[in-house]
Amino acid sequence: MSLSSRADIDAGGFFVNFNQDCTSLAVGSKSGYSLFSLNSVDSTLDQIYNSYGEDICLVERLFSSSLVAVVSLNAPRKLKVCHFKKGTEICNYSYSNTILAVKLNRSRLVVCLEESLYIHNIRDMKVVHTIRDTPPNTTGLCALASDSDHCYLAYPGSATVGEVQIFDAVNLHAKTMIPAHDSPLAAIAFSQMGTEVATASEKGTVIRVFSVNDGSKLFEFRRGVKRCVSIASLAFSTCSKYLCCSSNTETVHIFKLERSSPENNDDQSGKDHWMGYISKAVSSYLPLALPSQVTDVFTQGRAFASAVLPVAGLRHSCVINIIQKSMRLLVASQDGYLYVYQLPTEGGECQLIKKHDLRSVEPMATGRPESLPIGVPTSSPAGGGSYASAVKNASATTAAPAPGASSAGSNEDDQQHHQQ
Question: Among 134, 323, 363, 409, which residue is least crowded by beta carbons within 10 Å?
Answer without folding.
Answer: 363
